[in-house]
Amino acid sequence: MTETAPATGKSRWDYVLGTWKNLDVPDGWRAEIVDDDGVVLVAPPSDPRNFIAVRITRALNRVLPDDWDVYQTLGIQLPSIERLYVPDLVVMPESVVLDPARTPCPADEAELAVEIVSRSSMDTDRKKKLWGYAHGPVPLYLLVDAWDENGPSVTLYEQPGNGRYNQATTVDFGDKIRLPEPFDLEIDTSRFPGPDEWRS
């Protein structure tokens, strides 16, 4: 049974989504719905996160078709689990982004989601969003984690099904990680800043 919001007759998700759309978020900040507690404000990205995002964007732009783009502030919704994320990067067809009837964009239309872990987002990016993107389902989830306890790493999650990813490939910072079709691209991580270069 779909839970309804008090006195509105709308589903809980419609109510929360409407609240999200009407937020007055400070410049540079993002608002996400990452769990059942509702809307969460996310601080502006640090310089190292911006640097990594630019490096990945440059690599992706070399192979993307003209009608796909890389976005840094695009909300994508997962209504089946009542979540809304604003990935650090997401690749989405422009036809979806420009369709006013599909705002925020459906997560299952994304081609790739990228999250760049900071000290404050470890649990969210490694667990909550991993679970959420698998339920999207988003076909590819790239997790850049300078704070991995085994050393800075990049993990590509693939083949979502039954609410989880069925394949994961991890490389250390300094190595290359390959994105499969439709990208068929190697991303060089050798210039990704390690934890000593992060301030937050």
TrEMBL record:
- The answer to whether UniProt assigns keyword DNA-binding to this entry is no
User: Which Pfam families is this protein grouped with?
Assistant: Uma2
Q: What InterPro entries does the database record attribute to this sequence?
A: Nuclease_put_TT1808, Restrct_endonuc-II-like, Uma2
Per UniProt, residues of the Putative restriction endonuclease domain are 25-188
Entry superkingdom: Bacteria
Say if the entry is tagged with keyword Lipoprotein: no
GO terms for molecular function, please?
endonuclease activity
Q: Which UniProt keywords apply?
A: Endonuclease, Hydrolase, Nuclease
State the protein's name. Uma2 family endonuclease
User: In the record, what lineage is assigned to the organism producing the protein?
Assistant: Bacteria, Bacillati, Actinomycetota, Actinomycetes, Streptosporangiales
